[in-house]
């Protein structure tokens, strides 16, 4: 999944906790601009929040790019970090997998379920890139 034909509408450097709020707000605004219902906004913003939080928690930060897709009925994001990467993506995507005590372990798998399209690229020592698309309507 690439965003070559999409319009980049924002880039947010992920350096501290308040950047999660900025990311959520900007993605929600983009969803509203494409006519999204509150339910669709909430679903995608929750997914974005998860991947942004992971970049901060596990990699010390990263970058979030937000895109208006060519059909204008979808919003895309690309979250990149330069952390240690994910050794076993399949395990990390499974419900119940967690790196934190007390977590429900629904993170990446939940983000995938809340997105129309989801792709993750990661390898040990090379960081992680997550790309997602959120639909602004069910059509």
TrEMBL record:
Q: Identify the keywords attached in UniProt to this record, alphabetized.
A: ATP-binding, Kinase, Nucleotide-binding, Transferase
What does the record give under GO molecular function?
ATP binding; protein serine/threonine kinase activity
Q: Does the keyword Transmembrane helix apply?
A: no
Q: Which InterPro entries match?
A: HATPase_C_sf, HATPase_dom
Q: What is its EC number?
A: 2.7.11.1
Q: Where is the Histidine kinase/HSP90-like ATPase domain?
A: 18-133
Q: Which domain of life does this protein belong to?
A: Bacteria
The protein's matches in SUPFAM superfamilies, at most eight in alphabetical order, are given as: ATPase domain of HSP90 chaperone/DNA topoisomerase II/histidine kinase
User: What is the designated name of this protein?
Assistant: ATP-binding protein
Q: Which organism is it from?
A: Qipengyuania citrea
């Amino acid at each position: 999944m690439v965003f070559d034909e999409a319009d980049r509408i924002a880039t947010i450097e992920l350096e501290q906790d308040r950047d999660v709020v900025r990311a959520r707000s900007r993605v929600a605004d983009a969803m509203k601009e494409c006519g999204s219902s509150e339910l669709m906004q909430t679903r995608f913003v929750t997914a974005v929040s998860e991947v942004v939080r992971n970049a901060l928690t596990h990699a010390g930060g990263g970058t979030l790019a937000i895109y208006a897709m060519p059909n204008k009925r979808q919003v895309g994001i690309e979250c990149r970090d330069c952390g240690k990467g994910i050794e076993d993506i399949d395990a990390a995507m499974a419900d119940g997998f967690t790196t934190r005590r007390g977590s429900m372990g629904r993170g990446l798998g939940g983000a995938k379920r809340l997105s129309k399209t989801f792709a993750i690229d990661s390898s040990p020592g090379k960081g992680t890139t997550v790309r997602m698309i959120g639909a602004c309507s069910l059509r």
